[in-house]
Design goal:
The chain is an alpha+beta fold. The protein is 60% helix and 16% strand.
Amino acid sequence: MTGLSYLSIPLALFAFARRRRDLPYGWIAYLFVAFIVACGTTHLLSIVTLWFPIYGVEGLVKLVTAILSIGTAVMLWPLIPKLMRVPGPLQLTQLNAELSELLADQRKAAASLRESEAKARLANLQLEHRVAERTAELTAANGRLVEAMAQRSAAEEAQARSEEEFRISFQSAAVGKIQADPFTGRLLRVNPAFAHMLGYEPEELVGELGSELTWPEDRLHGDLARMQTGEITVMKRELRMCHRDGHPIWVRISATIVQMKDNGEPRLLIGVIEDIDERHKAQIAFQQTSADLALALEERTAALQQRDLLLREVYHRVKNNLQIVDGLLVMQSRAISDADSRAALQGLRGRIYALGLVHHQLMDSSDLKTFDIAPFLSELSHNIVDGGPEMNITLSVEAISLKVGLDFAIPLGLLVTELVTNSLKHAFPTGAGTIKVSLDRDDGGSLVLIVQDDGQGMHSDEVRPNKLGLTIINGLIDQLQGRMSMQTSGGTRTEIRLPEAHSS
């Protein structure tokens, strides 16, 4: 029973601490649980040792109990002042009451604030309503002012001109002028320019309705009523009117209503009609021409795209055919045992590769006409060195960026092919060396091609004019209208100067 009591107490404390985690310093409860469990275990072992002599275990448990008791005491005494400062139930009740009072005051303040906000919104709405009313009044006043200014302007114009001057101006005007009833639109007076515009005499049109002279699809619906009500003061339209022979004629109408001074009632509709038929026809013709040009441009663009496609196909086929020729030369060289013949075929393969590389560059260019010579020279030179005999050759290619076409790229590529091939053949008996290829401009703008090596240099029998390689080189230089100079001491250095005209 004593053991159960010792165990029930820590279980109760443990359950209480687990459920009331909000209590401050709740960890001390877990320390008491450990201490009481240790004490209970000590008492149980005291009973057990009556029958079983396990004094070592009993002593170990007592040691743990002693440590826990000392630790609990050490931690409990400094904690007592802190626990004394924890508010009691009476203090919590008082604080709760004060908090409730504070919350009540806050609710009252919030209600007052909401009431004030409601009053402010109401006042704001009233102010906006008054502003809107005042704005409407000002807008109406502005409309009346504009209307009064129009009436005053009409009155001043009427006073400034006499009836005779107005009649002369009306009759001799180069543009059409009309006067009509503002309510029915019936013509009261027309000038010769307007009547002749439609193929009539002025007296033939007096009494006719203006709407009857308008092309059916272009009749003005509602514009007269809008001018009568003052919604619009001036009407401007471009429309078709009916010629006497039945065909439409394009005109521009500007019309307004003259009002009475005393009551503002509509008095007279006056209008100016301009003949814009020729201009309108020209505009239609221009639009048609623009459409035709757009169509022609589209067709030309399609044709150019088709041309580009065909050019790419041609370049592709030329490249493929050159590859076929190269394959045939490879097979032929394998069947030939003579070293000179195989070397000649290998040189021919290098020239064919140069031709194929030019067409490959053109096929990948954007305009199918020109390409940058720098990457071309680099790829061409490395291919010659890589495809030559097994040697330890260091190759350097430096070329300026230059757009060139087919007529320049092919002879230049063949020149580089011949010169680099000659260096590989004659310059390096030990199988090691350096070849440099460069393309630059001099101060005069001419292109300078240099191919040099650090080999043994060419012998006199290797630079004879009748040699095939030099014959090809000289022919290519003549084709490019260039000049060549060669140095053979300390290696071979070939410099070729080309006119500025070859640059793009």
